[in-house]
Amino acid sequence: MSEETPLVLRKIIHIDMDAFYASVEQRDFPEYRGKPLVVGGKPDSRGVVSTASYEARKFGIRSAMPASKAYQLCPTAIFVYPRFDAYTAASKSIREIFSRYTDLIEPLSLDEAYLDVTEDKLNIGSAIDIAKSIKDAIKNELNLTASAGVSVNKFVAKIASDMNKPDGLTFIGPSKIERFMEKLPVEKFFGVGKVTAAKMKAMQINTGADLKKLTEQQLIAQFGKSGKFYYKVVRGIDERPVRPDRETKSVGAEDTFSADTNETSVMHGLLLQISEIVSKRLEKYQLKGKTLTLKIKFADFKIITRSRSFAIAFNDAKQIYSEAIKLLNEADIGRTEVRLLGITLSRFYEEIAEDKIENNQLEFDF
Hints:
By secondary structure, this protein is α+β, with helices and mostly antiparallel strands. It has helices at residues 20-28, 54-57, 67-73, 84-98, 127-142, 154-161, 174-183, 194-202, 208-212, 216-223, 226-233, 264-284, 317-331, and strands spanning 12-17, 37-40, 49-52, 78-80, 105-109, 112-116, 146-151, 169-171, 250-261, 289-298, 303-314, 338-346, 361-365.
């Protein structure tokens, strides 16, 4: 480890459920077990794959793939619509198992979370033993499997949990982290998306070892503030704590048209439905948002977003719908056919400075 490594090392576990939605379906419906299963839209719809069972993945089916493409790859697959109530209930039970060992739990989604077990409730001491115990409890009590990554920080633990799926347990200790990082492809690094990965590869930066050759100043010059994080994490340093109070950043919903459309009335109808869904979700979590974002995906898969922020937070369906319509009109999409629309409310806890407000609203175009 580098001399910059903090003296106090945490014990971090990242738990990632295996094909979570599909596994819940196969648990609840025996007739699905051992068969290729796709959770998402029907093959004759415009839906996408939410999760595919491991039997389906053997055919090349992956999350976010159009359901029609999944059907082409495996016509014998079983296609089912998601049952979010069932997944939420299972997630709650998983969280209860986590809480037996620590209160430092940072959920990332229904099916994954970070746990800080530096000091565990049961005084087990070994993070590896705790991870094993959690995996066993999930399997025995819920009839589901999880993969776990164990290390001294969040970044490495998350990468480790993906190394031996399904039902895996991988430990990467302090003495092995830097060598592990050097071999890691740059697209696996936290915060490196497709655009950044392409930029790195154009600079002949393909692995952590290549990334490590650049100074912190060079990385900041090329990648902004993220460059400072890349400099540290490639040396095994990730100081981000597990945040049990991690707040919800946004609530939204989106839907795909059965056929691409440029009919204003059809778009308005879908936005009304989405507005009602978003409003109900906000009310469920007792949230109100100050920033509304409209997402538009066109027939050629190009995506644009339009946002507006307000002085007073809201969650009323009528206001959500009204503001979404205004943003749609201002997007000036003309006669271009639209494939998908989505609405998101955010900025639940952040106050907008008064000197930035003009006529009670701000406009942000992306």
